[in-house]
Amino acid sequence: MALPALLARLQCKEYKNWMKAGMCLQMLQSPLQGYIDREMQSFHRQLAGKIKAPRHRKRCQCRAIGKKFEPACPVCAQWKELILSHHNNRKGEIHWGNSDPSLWPTHYWEVAKVYMPHGQAKLKGSKNCDPAALLNLINNCDHFKVSNTRVKEIIKCRNELMHSCNMKVSSSWLSSFGQKMYDLIAEFTHVPDLVKEGDKMQEVLLSNWNVGDLGVYEVDGPVKLQNQNIHTLKGYSEILEKTLSPYEAERLLIEQMIQELYLKIEEQGSVTKEDGDKVSQLKLFLSQNEDLKYDFQEDLVQFDILLKNHDVLQSEGWIHKKHLAAFVVVLSLAILTTTTTKGPPFAALSTLLVSKDFHLLIFQVSVIVEHLLKDLWLFMCPTNNSSLQTSDGNLKSNVYGQLKFKQDGNPNNYAVKVS
């Protein structure tokens, strides 16, 4: 008997479409891995032949961080120049931090990773890369003589698939995706394994995925697949050596969505509202399906942590916004007052607004606020106003103290004394 939970989810046609497209993308992986591995070794030899370096060279200490890399040795400088000369996106974002520049002369895959998206630093070869990384490599490196337009179309489809919070796509979207995939494979007629996978993709797209197609059965004990035990799914690069069942494809797709979300948050250094919404939706989806809830229980714990941190950041952000709003209100009040009030503080404010000297502007607003508070206090307590003023006319009270602003000759530095 087929696994009821998976069958129930596949009753939703849009969800089934989402899974089919994801499965086709996974089918690109294995044939692309072998092809790209061979091509990058050849590409590396070509570059190495153009580098002028001493025979007995010690390994340098050059390191790349994120999207920045400044070579500290002449050899790395040559490698960087050559890598950039073959990069189709040399004026855009390049994730130098993916690779170790000191290994460029000897490790071809360290060069390959410069042409890939963020998150590849720990990967040591093509067998560890998912389809998105491999497609980006082909798109960014001009060593590959294929239509970049067709590659970009599949990358775009892949991103739409992974960023679909409800994990659903329409039948028209799937039909368009199938045509674009067909066009892409037509660019790789020199890769027989990929052409074979193209025929299988057509079968996937046309299949209804009935009970016999799923390859998933209930047995006593842990749920098992035809080829794999469910607990081996995390190492998906090995599983993809054989044809995936829909059950396996579903797990891998969800895992990739989660990993991509983690990488995005890591790169941003924070959880945005969009990220928080996506985490919430993924958490809800996994929690509503007991089989997925069991397989992704560690991620559900991480989701709770992310959402908690997101709530804290939102709270802190709101406090910051309130302070900013208060300042804007005071500034606006001060500006409006300049039209009806005479005196040095208000006249000076108009000049500062024109000159855009914001340090002085902030100081002048503070002076204006002091004057407004003094006038307000004198208005509310007219009988005691003589005891609330000093000889220079400044407001004095037990609450605010006496504020004296002293300029020390530098228009950006002020001393504030509270008595």
Describe the structure in your own words.
With 419 residues, the protein is mainly α. Among the domains are: 4-214, no CATH class; 338-418, no CATH class. It is built from 16 helices and four strands. It has a two-stranded antiparallel sheet. Strands 3-4 form a two-stranded antiparallel sheet. Helix 5 packs antiparallel against helix 6 and helix 15 packs antiparallel against helix 16 (358-380). It is globular, with a radius of gyration of 32 Å. The termini are far apart. The relative contact order is 0.08. The model is unreliable at 215-241, 315-323, 339-346 and 382-419 (pLDDT under 50).
Q: What descriptors fit this protein?
A:
two-stranded antiparallel ribbon, 419 residues, 58% helix, single chain, disordered C terminus, mainly alpha
Distance between the termini: 84 Å
Outline: globular
**What is the overall number of helices?**
16
State Rg.
32 Å
Number of DSSP E strands: 4
Strand order in space, largest sheet: 1-2
Estimated share of beta-strand residues:
under 5%
Strand-pairing-aware structural class: mainly alpha
